[in-house]
TrEMBL record:
Residues 52-66 have a biased composition (Pro residues). Signal peptide: none annotated. Residues 1-72 are annotated as: Disordered. The lineage of its organism: Eukaryota, Metazoa, Ecdysozoa, Arthropoda, Hexapoda. InterPro entries: Bax_inhibitor_1-related (IPR006214). One of its GO terms (cellular component) is membrane. Its main location: membrane. This is Protein lifeguard 1. The gene is LFG1.
């Protein structure tokens, strides 16, 4: 057997088997070494003990323990090979928060009513503008195409917000579509209100405000759970829709009053239902705090329908 650099672990002085030694790596034909693999490192191995393995105190351990899950070169949970944050779908800062928590729910309610107040302010501004500015009122009444365009915009925006969850939950697209819907709906209400006398519109606004405030307070404190009435209310709306089609062709004052009264009653119950969905807590069903746009949209539609039906009742009773 040859020597390791004229020592015991190489067949040739130019073919050693340790990194950093002359001749590394070994050439073909020289592997494995004659006599088997060495069982102890050479005396020059860093930190080697006099008796060979294990190494002495000078040996540096690897950066990871043998049972470290990342010792095989795996990525850390929030990083990738480029060093860019790799979001796994769960924010570590909000981990552990429960959406049923009272503070989360209160913040959600404040956000919903803030958005709703802005929507109602825009609507009231349009109604007052069309009602008291005569040139604008005459212009919109003489151009029915504007009414049709606004109606199409309402349908498109409403379907988008109701059916596309990504649009409804992602800012700023959710606010953009919500306020497109709000401006179009405010335009429709203003045009419709401009066909009534200003005293009738003011009376309808006052009655609607009183009814909605009373129903909201009732929904906040009542022990009755209206969140289980979703199916019944949906059937009631379908019946009201069919009744409305019949009322178009039956020009009768009593039919109009009955139709408007049923509509005001159904959407008043809907207002309590949607309010309790927003409150959550003791009620059987609740809406997620992520759906603040959807909650504000529901309440706004309820209030708008109550206003229109009350205005129809007042206008029909005065004719």
């Amino acid at each position: 057997m040859s020597q390791w650099n004229n020592g015991p672990y190489a067949q040739d002085p130019n073919q050693a088997y340790y990194a950093g030694q002359p001749g590394y790596p070994p050439q073909p034909g020289a592997y494995p070494p004659a006599g088997g693999y060495p069982t102890a490192p050479p005396s020059g191995y860093p930190g080697a003990a006099p008796a060979g393995y294990p190494p002495g105190p000078g040996f540096q351990p690897p950066p990871y323990a043998p049972n470290d899950p990342y010792s095989a070169g795996e990525q850390t949970p929030f990083s990738n090979n480029a060093g860019v944050a790799n979001y796994s779908g769960e924010d570590p800062e909000v981990k552990g928060f429960d959406f049923s928590d009272a503070s989360i729910r209160r913040g959600f309610i404040r956000k919903v009513y803030s958005i709703l107040c802005v929507q109602l302010s825009i609507t009231l501004g349009f109604i007052a503008w069309f009602l008291y500015h005569t040139p604008t009122r005459k212009y919109v009444q003489s151009h029915p195409a504007l009414f049709i365009i606004a109606l199409i915009v309402i349908i498109v925006a409403l379907i988008t917000l109701a059916c596309c969850g990504e649009v409804r939950r992602k800012a700023p697209m959710n606010f953009i579509f919500l306020f497109i819907f709000t401006f179009a709906e405010a335009f429709i209400l203003a045009v419709s209100s401009s066909t009534y006398e200003s005293e009738e519109v003011i009376m309808a606004v006052g009655i609607t405000a009183a009814v909605c405030l009373g129903l909201t307070l009732f929904a906040f404190q009542t022990k009755w759970d209206f969140t289980m009435m979703g199916g019944i209310l949906f059937v009631a709306v379908i019946i009201l829709f069919v009744f409305g089609i019949v009322a178009i062709f039956v020009h009768n004052r009593i039919v109009k009053l009955v139709y408007a009264s049923l509509g005001a009653l159904i959407f008043s119950i809907y207002l309590v239902y949607d309010t309790q969905l927003m409150l959550g807590g003791k009620h059987k069903y609740s809406i997620s705090p992520e759906e603040y746009i959807f909650a504000a949209l529901n309440l706004y539609i309820d209030i708008v329908n109550i206003f229109m039906y009350i205005l129809t009742i007042i206008g029909t009773s005065r004719d």
